[in-house]
Structure formats: structure tokens, C-alpha cells
Amino acid sequence: MTDFLWGASTSPHQVEGNNLNSDWWAQEQAFPQLFERSGDALDSYHRYAEDMKLLADAGLNAYRFGIEWARIEPVEGHISRAELAHYRRMIDAALEAGLTPVVTIQHFTVPAWFKRAGGWLAPEAIDRFRSFVAASTEILADVPYIITINEPNVLALMSLREPMMRAIEDGTFDQNAAAADHSEALARVVPPLAIGDRLIEAHAAAREILRASVSGKVGWSVAGQAFQSTPGNEDRFAEIKYVWEDKFLEASREDDFIGVQAYTSQLIDAVGIVPHVEDPANTLNGWAYRPDALGIAVRNAADVTGGIPALITENGIATADDERRIAYTSEALAHLAEAMAEGIDVRGYLHWSALDNYEWGDWESTFGLIAVDRTTFARHPKPSLGWLGRVARRGVPTSESLAAAR
Ligand code: BGC
User: Fold this and answer.
1) Parallel/antiparallel/unpaired status of strands 5-9 and 62-66
2) Which of 153, 257, 383, 397 is 20 to 30 A from 304 via CA?
């Protein structure tokens, strides 16, 4: 048996279905021109035990999933005992299946009431989050790894879509103008500072509450974009890397671990982040195929956090070709093994994602180790699940264990 965690990740809104009281559900109904609907998603709200069994049977020993604030507190101040009990059953089911539960408290979605009341920038936001975290501690007491907030940097970036939604509501949205400069402009931006600062505050508040009442390790997961500088633009590179990810990594220096999430890499030029160039090798969601991103991101996380233990909480590829998923992941793991051989303390690897889930407005970008028929909800494990299980059975990733698992 190995202590190294080998598993896969999901988030509640992306797999559960009918997350009716969340901000995302509301915006999917209001802006069908921007978002495909999550609907029943994969019905994992009811089928989580089946999902977990597939992972455990394949040879994995960990599962990352989240608890959904919009279900636990559908109305401000009203805590649903039944929903807390539901998530406790999930934790118990994971433990019984032999999977170490890694639980995320907040993964992009918030209750619709929280959003309507001003979201993360409202003066009461931190207190509201604090009450939810306090309510959740009773089911998290023995969870070994707790992630307070998923990708605060990407969550802050998501808020940049708000003006577009407001313009659609007022009828002032110019679809052609937006389409012309939208992707270029979005690709070059950095997370808005005000929200980023709020999320850092929220994380510190949650950590304080959790440390006082639970025994598990507490951290958060930060998106690492594996930035690289173009020649002569090292200052701009350092500046962008700081606001995009390092300030969030610095905020975890006091944490028990850092959740590292990496998919791709981007260059930084004199203007800023260089958008991904169109290339047939790009993934289904348009990102450059860069399995080396994981090595770059984990080294940067170790460097900026002062070497706190790292847990890879997400890494994967949107592709319809499962052989390509295996090739990408195998290469990413080889880069991880190299970083570990250099002395970086890595406690586990959780692949994104367990299932072909709702990719925030899009059902086409399939990241899963398991395909799902969205009419019958039948699960169909892909060869990549069996492959990852074989890698897992060989313990910590090394070039030898990766070669042997093929
Ligand atoms: C998020 C996931 C998302 C994945 C792929 C991360 O940004 O945490 O929710 O599905 O990357 O885009």
C-alpha cells in the first residue's frame, strides 16, 4: 500500500444535477446564449456511490468532491440538516470504498441569494462564508484533506463576464463587437484584484474556523498557468505571474498543503498573456497541449509557498480521444516525477476529472475517465481509468512505474 493519494476530482455543480438554488443555475436559465444548461448533470447527487466504486475498483485510493453551499444554505441563515447529512453520507461512502475523501467547501458556485446580495464584494460576504463554513465543520471533523476555495484566481476571472450579462439584460449587448474582441481580450486579462483580495480574506477566515474544529489538513487549490516569459519581458512576466497566481500561493504559506491545478501553459509578452494560438493539437476547449505545465506549476507552487506539501488536485485534458488522455497524463506524471526527484514534496495526484461533466456552460469539453450517457445516466469507464489505476497500484510516480503501467 502506498500513502501517495491517487484519485480523481469532481465538483458538485458539474456532476450532481438540479443545483436549483445556485447562482450558476440562475445564470444558465437567464443567459442561454452564453451557457448550455447543467440540468440533471450526471445525477451524481444520487449516483455518487456508483461513481466512487468505479474509481476504487480501478485501483484508485482517493476521491475529491465538494459540498454545495446552495443546497446546505438555500436561504440565508437556513441550514438544511438533510443536506449536511447527505454530504456526510458521501464522506462515509468514500471511506467505506477505501477512498480518502478530499473535500472542497466552495467550487465556483455560491447560493443565488449570496450573489443577489452583492456576492464576494458585499461587506457581509466574509461573515456569510464564515457561517457556512462553521455549519459544515460538523460533517468535516475527520476528513483528511479540506480545500476551502477552489481556484480563487479563476473565480475572480469569472466575474469579468458580469458586464456582458448586464448588457444582455439591458439590451445594449453588441454580439458582433463582443465576438470580435472578446476572446483576445479575455485571454490577456488578470484576475480582478478586489475579488481576489476578498477570496484571500475568506480563505484565511475559513482556515481559522476549520483549524479550531477539525483534524484534517486545510488548504486551498490555486490554478497554475505555467507562465513563461518571452525574451526581454521578464518584468512583465513577474508582474502578471504575481497577480494571476503567486499572490494566491503566498496566501497559503500558513496552510497545511497547497492544491496545485495545471492544464496548460501560456507565454507572456510586452502586452501581457499571449492567447493560445489556433493549432490542431489544441485540446477541445482551445488550450495548448502542454503536459509539461504540471511540472512548471508544482515547482512554482513549492517555490512561492516556501515548500509546503503539494497535492495535485486537478490535471487533465479535454479530448474525445482517450488514447490522447493517457498520453497527456502519462507525460504530465513524468514531469511530476521529475519535480519530486528534485525534492518537491508531493502527496498525491487527483486527475480532472472522474466523469465527463458539465464544463461551466459547455458539455463538449470532455475531461472524464468515465463517460456518462446523459439520458440513462449509465457510466462507461474509459481505458484511461484502468490505466490510471494500474499506475496507482505501483505507488509514487516514477519513470519506471509509468513505463510499466502502459
Ligand atoms: C476547475 C474545474 C474545471 C477545470 C477544467 C478548473 O478550472 O476547477 O471546475 O472544470 O478546471 O476547465
Assistant:
1) parallel
2) 397
Better pLDDT: 185 or 156:
156
CA angle 199, 203, 204 (to 5 degrees): 120
Domain holding 246: CATH number?
A: 3.20.20.80
The Cα–Cα gap between 169 and 284 comes to: 30
Question: How would residue 68 be classed by pLDDT, with cut points 50, 70 and 90?
Answer: very high
Residue 122 predicted with pLDDT over 80: yes
How far does the centroid of ligand 1 lie from the alpha carbon of residue 394, in Å? 27
Tell me which DSSP letter residue 42 carries.
T
Q: Looking at ligand 1, which atom is closest to the CA of residue 316? A: 5
Number of domains in the chain: 1
| Inter-residue contact 396 to 333 (CB < 8 Å) | no
Residue 180 has pLDDT above 90, yes or no: no
User: Which residues does ligand 1 sit against, CB inside 6 Å?
Assistant: 11, 14, 150-151, 154, 223, 261, 314, 352, 359
User: Which residues 6+ apart lie within 8 Å of 239 measured at CB?
Assistant: none
Domain range holding 274? 5-405
Q: What is the pLDDT of residues 371-392, one digit of tens each?
A: 999 999 999 999 999 999 999 9
Residue pointed to by grid coordinates 467505506: 96
Strands 310-314 and 257-262, bridge-based pairing: parallel
| DSSP label of 38 | -
Percent of the chain at pLDDT > 90 equals 89
Answer for the pair 224, 335: CB distance below 8 angstroms, yes or no: no
- Mean pLDDT across the stretch 65-76? 98
Q: Provide CB contacts within 8 A for 89, sequence distance 6+.
A: none
Q: Is residue 95 predicted with pLDDT exceeding 70?
A: yes
Closest Cα to atom 3, ligand 1: which residue?
A: 359
HEC string of 114-180 equals HHHCCHHHCCCHHHHHHHHHHHHHHHHCCCCEEEEEECHHHHHHHHHHHHHHHHHHHCCCCHHHHHH
Q: Find out whether 70 and 14 touch, Cβ atoms under 8 Å.
A: no
Cell 483576445 appears where? 184
**pTM metric for this prediction:** 0.97
Cα–Cα distance for residue pair 268/230, rounded to 1 Å = 6
Beta-carbon contacts of 121 under 8 Å, excluding residues fewer than 6 positions away, are 194, 195, 198
**Closest-CA residue to 263 (of 226, 234, 303, 309):** 226
pLDDT of residue 1: 47
Ligand 1 mean position to 359 CA, how many Å? 7
What cell does 282 get? 489544441
Instruction: Return the number of other C-beta atoms located less than 10 Å from residue 93's C-beta.
Output: 17
